[in-house]
Amino acid sequence: MTGAKERGAVAAVGLFAGVLMAASLPPWGWWPLAPVGAAGLALSAAGRPWSLRLLAGAAAGLGLFGPGLWWMIQFSGPGYVVTTLLEAAIVGLAMVAVPAGRGRGPAFPAALVLAAALGGHWPFGGLPLAGIALGQAGGALAPAARLGGHLLLVGMVGALGAALAAVVERGRRPGVRRVFVPLAVVAGVVAVAVAGAVSPVGSARGTVRVAAVQGGGQRGLRAIYVDPQVPLDAHLAAAAGVARPVDVVVFPENVVTVDGPLAGSTQDMAMADVARTLDATVVAGVVTDAGPDRFHNAAVAWAPDGPVVATYEKVHRVPFGEYVPLRRIINHLADLSAVPRDAIAGRGPGILATPAGRMGVMISYEVFFADRARAAVRAGAEVLLVPTNASSYTTSQVPAQELAAARLRATETGRDVVQAAPTGFTAVVDAHGRVLRRSRLGSPAVISATVTRRRGQTLAVRLGDGPLVVTAVVALAAAYLTSRKRRPVLTPAP
């Protein structure tokens, strides 16, 4: 095969492999295709020089993140292109780290794990959307997240892909010994998934009756262009459908917007009235001014008798959505009128100590980051709440991926999750990652359920991502050393 033809074939196979992995993501959700796509990527890079491995990985990244991040194009075409290229480059570099020859089997899943870890932190704090793990939230591998979090799921997809690739490579040389290692890998992956399914989810400490309120309305409208009184009125109207008795009522992010301080405002009094009427703790997303150029984005809890009892300010902000990194520079390159102010970053774990119990909070984008859920559970969260605002998106892609992220956080932490969104998806997810209730997009709704308050920490919460990252680094180093070894030259006996 000539150089140009080989490059074309490598790029084509890599691109198709990435598309298969993208098809595993919500809203499509064909989760078994992720290991098949991983196998295609492993085959396209196998035995190639570093430049072709880079090409294979970058092409797969384009196939994965091109469709997976398509929602971005309605906000910024150049931003979509740049972000997709950056994410694809990470996958390409991961494949460069996989040796071409010996040792590439265990190195391949390790490289995918490190790529996912890097993409979850860089650039600008990371972009976990369209990540491989999201495609497994409803699949057979998902229970393993309780042991090692989302990175373990990525590693398991990579291991299955490497095993399938090995079977294909050895197909011309049939024999039991040739398939023993791939079968052992598959058996190991199944064993890890089963171990996750039977591992504890924490000790029950009673139940709490919750209701999540969805006001409904037109989707695809940015908050900056909407009268803030409109969503508040819609949600107050929807809250009239909350059935008593109820312990906690969750409203979405950005439902309350106040020009000045919250205390004593008409919005404060309106939410306090809801709490008193329902005799319940009310949690709602509140935006308040912090000067001409900044604002606060917080989750606020009102006690059943009306006063505010707890506040958590969003820590992990949305880059180019809630703040603009390097604003002074980018302002000369792009129109930033849609993000005129920067949100102030909060600190600490997302915890609301309420009369109904200690509620962990991940505000919107934070649900995509496992460290925010872990921090809340380590601080004593018994239930996780996700007040979010996904109403700016015209398609179901981001709401579906966000619900998948909520399912992963539930599985990882062993906590029930209650999510409230203005136009959906509003949902209740149990500690096993199963969706118990879910709204339709756009319609007003009240989702009610009885959820379990839990204490204790899963292995994923206790250990975090560190051990898997270290294991992946060691596996890559070992694979590299193995690939450098040379067989000894045998000299004939005299």
Q: What are the key terms here?
A:
14 helices; 494 residues; alpha/beta; disordered C terminus; 8-stranded mixed sheet; globular
Provide a quick synopsis of the model.
The chain is of the alpha/beta class and 494 residues long.
Q: What do you see in this structure?
A:
With 494 residues, this protein is of the alpha/beta class. It contains 14 helices and 14 strands. Strands 1, 2, 3, 4, 5, 6, 7 and 14 form an eight-stranded mixed sheet that branches. The chain has a six-stranded mixed sheet with strand order 8-9-10-11-12-13, covered by helices on one side. Residues 487-494 have low confidence and may be disordered.
Helical residue percent band: 40-55%
Tell me about the biggest sheet?
A: 8 strands, mixed
- Overall strand count: 14
Order of helices and strands: HHHHHHHEHEEHEEEHEEEHEHEEEEHH
Gap from first CA to last CA: 43 Å
Work out the radius of gyration: 24 Å
Question: What is the overall silhouette?
Answer: globular
Low-confidence spans: 487-494
Mean pLDDT: 92
Strand content: 15-25%
Helical segment tally? 14
Layout of secondary structure:
Layout lengths: L2 H21 L9 H13 L4 H19 L8 H21 L6 H16 L25 H25 L6 H23 L4 E12 L14 H11 L8 E3 L5 E3 L7 H13 L2 E9 L4 E9 L5 E6 L13 H4 L11 E2 L7 E4 L2 E5 L8 H9 L4 E5 L9 H17 L3 E4 L6 E3 L5 E4 L6 E11 L3 H5 L2 H19 L10
Parallel strand pairs: 1-2, 2-4, 3-4, 5-7, 9-10, 10-11
Antiparallel strand pairs: 1-14, 4-5, 5-6, 8-9, 11-12, 12-13
Helix pairs in contact: 1-2, 1-3, 2-6, 3-4, 4-5, 5-6, 5-14, 6-7, 6-12, 11-12
